[in-house]
Design a protein that fits this description.
The protein is α+β, with helices and mostly antiparallel strands. It folds into 2 domains: about 130 residues, no CATH class; about 180 residues, Resuscitation-promoting factor rpfb fold (Single Sheet). Helix content is about 20%, strand content about 30%. Strands 2-6-5-8-7-3 form a 6-stranded mixed beta sheet. A hairpin with a 2-residue loop joins strand 12 and strand 13. The longest helix is centred in the last third of the chain and has 15 residues. It is elongated. The two termini are about 30 Å apart.
Amino acid sequence: MAKANHRKQTKTLRSLSKRQWLKIAASATAVVALVGGSFFAVHAHNTQQDSLTRVTSYSATDTNALGVSRGADRENLRGGKAGDTYVTVKINGKNRAVVGSHFTNVKSVLDQGDITLETGDVVKPDLKTKVNESTVITIERADANLETSDAPIGFNVVTKETSALPKGQQKVESEGQEGVMETTSLVTKAGDKTVSSNVFTSFVKQAPVDKVILVGTGSNSPVSNAAANIGSTVPVGEMQQWAHDYLLSTGGSEADFTATVYIISHESGWRINAQNPSGAYGLPQALPGSKMASAGADWATNYQTQLKWFWSYCGRYGGVQGAYAHWLSAHSY
């Protein structure tokens, strides 16, 4: 059987702390007129990240994330609430969104987003300017360029029962294909030497395709709907293995695990700290990510906490298989 290859990317963050980069969301690419200006410089934090993948995933759920984030029914978007305000912050021409409910001025947005500026950064409009959802805050950072690269998203192997084959016989219905995560980094250089490289945005440019293997039960053997339609998925890596074992130990099924893997693979590519332009965060793309605090204070970095929140959220669909069925029809959940 083919085996999925989930790879890690390790980035060194010099200008922002880990907590700060974890809490900043990316926004869509709307162009809005810029007004006013001021110069503001602060001390930059130097932080090195060794164990976590610093990515901000653009969810495959909806390629127009800004339109989704500004929709009337935000409560249905991964736990978002109608009172949330989305203010765009643009750094060297690349957009992000900061999500909050008590914004007053530019400074309050930067504080809420924990955005740390480097010495020499230019911010427009000035920090005392009042903001609303049409405001675009721009930050110009000298000697920094945007560089883009692709990385693979691993696929899984799914087995499905069928009465059309003799008992025990197997047939490959479809071959697996890795997905593609496109990542853009803000790179600062001194001559030919890279001083810092901070991942700015990343999105699921192409979702992975599972390898599907049909397993015969014989013409007289019944096939359960779950086994036939969803199948059983071979877990890959620590996160999937934990999810598999946890679900089965708490009364879940192989079909529940298959549904989980499918949704998470399409939403975040199994990146713990993925963020999309709407402000959604983590494996399940909670909107905003802080909603997962209901499952644990370590929601930003603990995949187990994120997955527990995800399964709880899926309760509105009657369970994770219901969320999976909705995802197939609406490409969202």
